[in-house]
Amino acid sequence: MNCSVKLQLSLYIKAIKGIGQTGKIQPVVLPLVWFEESGAMEGEPLQTFYTQLVLMPSVLHYAQYVLLALGCVLLLIPIIHQIRSQEKCYLFWSSSKKGSKDKEAIQAYSESLMTSAPKGTVLQEARL
Questions:
Q1: Where are the domains of the chain?
Q2: Per the count of CB atoms within 10 A, which of 11, 34, 41, 43 is most buried?
Q3: Residue 51 has what DSSP assignment?
């Protein structure tokens, strides 16, 4: 593999109001430094450079999207499991449309708590 590097640094000069030294200068680009280097690479160093500079960045580019998708799936799994474990579930509350037997049992229990016990009846035994 042949490779070459060329670099030129230039300076742009123009007149600036308020600075007297640049009063009558026309805009111009002055080249300051020119650098050129070339070479050839073969064998193991070429394979190393290809792996590190071409292959790995492209693999990591696709890996970020794969990991993002995996994270989304892992976030959705518990949400779907929670929804399926309940008959009707809205994110922060459950629907009251469960079976009528459950509703009747809850209603009967609520009514039993509201009725007062006859005098002399022990409601709950206290233990120390």
A1: 1-40, 43-93
A2: 41
A3: I
Q: What are the pLDDT digits (tens) for 1-49?
A: 888 999 999 999 998 888 888 888 889 999 999 999 998 988 898 899 8
DSSP state of 22: G
Sign of the CA dihedral running 60, 65, 70, 74: positive
Cα(7)–Cα(116) distance, rounded to whole angstroms?
Answer: 95
C-alpha span between 119 and 31 (Å, rounded): 108
What is the spatial distance between Cα 19 and Cα 52, in angstroms, rounded to a whole number? 50
Alpha carbons 38 and 6: distance in angstroms, whole number = 9
The model carries a pTM of 0.39
